[in-house]
Amino acid sequence: MKTITVLGASGFVGSAVARALARRPIRLRAVARRRFTPPAGRAEITAVAADLTDRASLASAVAGSDAVVHLLLGDGGWRGAEGAERVNVGVLRDFVEIVGGGDGPPPVVVFAGSTSQVGVPPREPLDGTEPDHPATPYDVQKLEAEQLLKKATADGLVRGISLRLPTIFGETAAEGANHDRGVVSTMARRALEGLPLTIWGDGTVRRDLVHVDDVASAFTAALDHPDSLAGGHWLIGAGRGDQLGEVFRLVAKEMSEHTGKSPVEVSCVEPPSHAPETDFRSITIDSTPFRAVTGWHPEISLPEGVRRTVAALTSSVQGRVHT
C-alpha cells in the first residue's frame, strides 16, 4: 500500500483532505502540530503530533512517504503572515533537502498555493497563465515556496504539484476546530449573533467560492494524476464568480430559516482606508486545464454549501450551550 502523508491534517482544508483519503486503502499519516483524533476509514491511519519547523521532526514525519500533501499555514492567516516565513517557505525548503538524498522514486508533493499569488487580477477569468505580482507578504511567501517546489521537480528531487486555491468555505468536521473559516463562516457567525452583515463597497464584487469538500477532492484528484500535473501550478475554482452581496443575503436567509428569527440586515458601507486594492477586484477562475487532466469538478452548489455551513455552526453552538 502507498503511504500518503498529510501535513497540517487538523486544519480546515487538511482535515477535509485527510477525511477523503481515509476512505482509500492506503497508509495515511496525518500530521498536525497538536494531538488530534484522525478520521476513520479504510486506510491504516497514524496520527502524528509534530512541530514541523524542527527539521528532525519533519524528517521523521515524512519518512517513507510515497506522496505528501503540504497544507501548512503560518500563524496569523493570510493577512498577517509577516512572521510566518518559517512555516510558509522554510518547511518546504527543509523538506526538499531532506528527501533530495533519498533512495527510490521521488515522492509526489501536492502543495496548497493560492490564486491570490497573482496579485491584483489583471483580467477575468484567471487561468494560470498570468504573470505573478504578489501584493501581500503571504502571497510573496506562497509564490516563493511554489518556485522552490518547481525547481526541485525540475531537478528530479520530487514530483511537485501546486494547486492554487480559491476562496474556500464550508463546515469542518475536525475535532475542536472553530468555524471562523473565511468570509462565509464569519458572516454566518455574525448572523447567528443577530448582528448586521456589512459589505465594503456596493456588494457587486465577485469571488470564486468553492466548498472545502470539493477542494479536498481536487487534492485527491491531483494525487491520482501526478505524471500529468508535476512541475506546474493549477488553478482550482468553480468558475461562477458569486457577488458578495448576494452571498451575504443568502447567509442571512439561511440563518433565519435555521433559527426562526427574522433575517439580519445586509448593508453596504464605506471601506476602511487600509483596505487593499485586491478586496475590490472581482475574481473568477477558469480551472479548465486541471479539469481536463483529472476530470475534477465541484459538486456542491453555493446554496447547498451555505446551508451546510450554517447548519454546522448552529449545531456546534447549541452543543456547547447544552454542555
UniProtKB/TrEMBL annotation:
<feature type="domain" description="NAD-dependent epimerase/dehydratase">
    <location>
        <begin position="4"/>
        <end position="237"/>
    </location>
</feature>
<dbReference type="Pfam" id="PF01370">
    <property type="entry name" value="Epimerase"/>
</dbReference>
<protein>
    <submittedName>
        <fullName>NAD-dependent epimerase/dehydratase</fullName>
    </submittedName>
</protein>
<dbReference type="InterPro" id="IPR036291">
    <property type="entry name" value="NAD(P)-bd_dom_sf"/>
</dbReference>
<dbReference type="GO" id="GO:0004029">
    <property type="term" value="F:aldehyde dehydrogenase (NAD+) activity"/>
</dbReference>
<dbReference type="GO" id="GO:0005737">
    <property type="term" value="C:cytoplasm"/>
</dbReference>
<dbReference type="InterPro" id="IPR051783">
    <property type="entry name" value="NAD(P)-dependent_oxidoreduct"/>
</dbReference>
<dbReference type="InterPro" id="IPR001509">
    <property type="entry name" value="Epimerase_deHydtase"/>
</dbReference>
